[in-house]
Structure formats: structure tokens, C-alpha cells
Design brief:
By secondary structure, the protein is an alpha/beta fold. The protein has two domains: 134 residues, D-Maltodextrin-Binding Protein, domain 2; 105 residues, 3-Layer(aba) Sandwich (D-Maltodextrin-Binding Protein, domain 2), CATH 3.40.190.10. Helices cover 43% and strands 21% of the residues. The protein contains eleven helices and eleven strands. The strands form two sheets. A six-stranded mixed beta sheet has the order 2-1-3-10-4-11. It has a five-stranded mixed beta sheet with strand order 7-6-8-5-9, sandwiched between helices. Helix 3 packs parallel to helix 4. It is elongated, with a radius of gyration of 23 Å. 38% of the residues are buried.
Length: 258
């Protein structure tokens, strides 16, 4: 009986001695990610923390706003942009760790309507989008700054539709805000990513913009210069793994990384 108690005491002492070392290894990773990744990143956060023991802090906004914050010294460890342009800007300024950048995801842009029973629409040259709006607004992310908005504008310009609706566009800070305008009925139609449309049960996808009417939609990811930690490396590796792939695919993304 005494021997058993002694063994228990020794085991407890060993566990206590090991605990501080375990806690010390746990680190925090701050990820700046495009707003269109909101649902996927919630799942990624839970799975990464469970698998690694590290803490993941996710900041979501339009890629342009996040890139500008990084330019101004915001403490981001990893940046996931919804288009290559903003990543290119940071890389040209030496704000991205060399050799850490890779393409992660692809997406599509769609036309959505308020409600669940809207009729499908043929998207192409000659489409009467202004007539479809019938005096209402077309919700989009900021057309000259936020990737979802720039892709949407590029498609409308390519199809010869932009000039007809430019004055009817309601520009939002990010794509999720544009989605919210349509979901709430404040705008009858909007242009968002396919993955955003899938996140709301208050809108209908009425058409998909032709892939050749806008630049390829690519989400690059990279390590921001500054801290180089085990947790950052673990997170970047996790993004390439099967758990992350499954999470992204469940949200409708196309995973392009190998």
C-alpha cells in the first residue's frame, strides 16, 4: 500500500515537472484572412488548435484592408489574400518571408438574388442587368480595392455590362457585407463568391459569371516577416494537409495547393 502511494506521488511529481515545458511550447499564430474565408477559417481554427496545441487567432476583412494593416505594421504572422495582387504588393515591399508563399485556393463569382426562389438568369453579353435590377441596387464589394469587387467589375466590363449598372452599384467594405445586403433584402441582387452564397440560406445563386470574363481567382498564402516560430511553420504545413483540404472543400473552395 505504501509502495503504491509512493509510486503515485512520484508520477504526480513527474507530471508537474513536465507541465511547464508543455505549456511553454504552445504558441499563438495570428492569421489575417480574406473575409470570404469566414466559415472555412472557423473550422480550420478548431482543427488546427486540436491537432497542434497552438492557439490560432484569425482576423477577417477585405484583402485590401488587411494588406494595408500589414503595411502599417499590424502584428500578422500569416496572410491569406483573396487575390495575388495584394500579396504581390506586400512581397515587393519585403513584407513576406522569402520562399513561404504558395497558392492555396480558387473560387468562382456568382450573381445572387434575395430569397430562395429567384429565377435563374443567363449571364453573358447583352444581358439586361439594369432591367433586372429595376431601380434596385447591385451589392458588391468595393470594385476598385476588394478582390471580390474587382473580379466582379472585371467580369461586368468584359461582358459590356458595367456602364449600364455602375451608378446602381452599392459598394460594401468586403464581400460578406455585400452578401448581407442581399440577404437582408436591402439590395435585390449582388455579386459574391460562390462560397459566400453557400453560407446564406436567404439568397439564391441565379447565375455564375464565365471564368474567362475575369482574371483567375487565386488565394495565395504566405508568412509575414517578423516572428519565425514553430507555430507559424506548423500552421502553413497544416494548410497543405488533408484536414484543411477537407474543410475548404466542404465550404465550396477549390484547393489548388499540392
Amino acid at each position: 500500500m505504501r509502495l503504491s502511494s509512493a509510486r503515485h506521488a512520484i508520477a504526480a511529481m513527474l507530471a508537474a515537472a513536465l507541465l511547464p515545458a508543455t505549456v511553454a511550447r504552445a504558441e499563438s499564430v495570428t492569421v489575417f484572412a480574406a473575409a470570404s474565408m469566414s466559415n472555412a477559417m472557423q473550422e480550420i481554427e478548431d482543427r488546427f488548435e486540436a491537432a497542434s496545441g497552438h492557439d490560432l487567432v484569425v482576423s477577417l476583412a477585405g484583402s485590401s484592408a488587411l494588406a494595408r494593416q500589414i503595411q502599417q505594421g499590424a502584428p500578422a504572422d500569416v496572410f491569406i489574400s483573396a487575390n495575388p495582387g495584394w500579396m504581390d504588393a506586400l512581397e515587393s515591399e519585403g513584407l513576406i518571408e522569402e520562399g513561404t508563399r504558395f497558392d492555396l485556393l480558387s473560387n468562382a463569382i456568382v450573381l445572387i438574388a434575395h430569397g430562395r426562389d429567384a429565377a435563374p438568369v443567363g449571364i453573358g453579353p447583352g444581358m439586361d442587368l439594369a432591367g433586372l435590377l429595376d431601380g434596385g441596387r447591385l451589392a458588391m464589394a468595393m470594385a476598385d480595392a476588394v478582390p471580390a469587387g474587382t473580379y466582379g467589375k472585371a467580369s461586368l466590363v468584359s461582358l459590356g455590362l458595367w456602364d449600364d449598372v455602375a451608378t446602381d452599384v452599392a459598394q460594401a467594405d468586403n464581400v460578406r457585407a455585400a452578401l448581407a445586403l442581399v440577404a437582408a433584402g436591402e439590395a435585390p441582387y449582388g455579386i459574391v463568391y460562390a462560397t459566400d452564397a453557400a453560407a446564406s440560406d436567404k439568397v439564391t445563386v441565379v447565375g455564375t459569371f464565365p471564368a474567362d470574363s475575369h482574371p483567375p481567382i487565386i488565394y495565395p498564402v504566405a508568412d509575414v516577416v517578423g516572428r519565425d516560430t514553430e507555430a507559424e511553420a506548423a500552421f502553413l504545413e497544416f494548410l497543405r494537409g488533408p484536414e484543411a483540404r477537407a474543410a475548404f472543400e466542404r465550404q465550396g473552395f477549390i484547393v489548388v495547393t499540392e
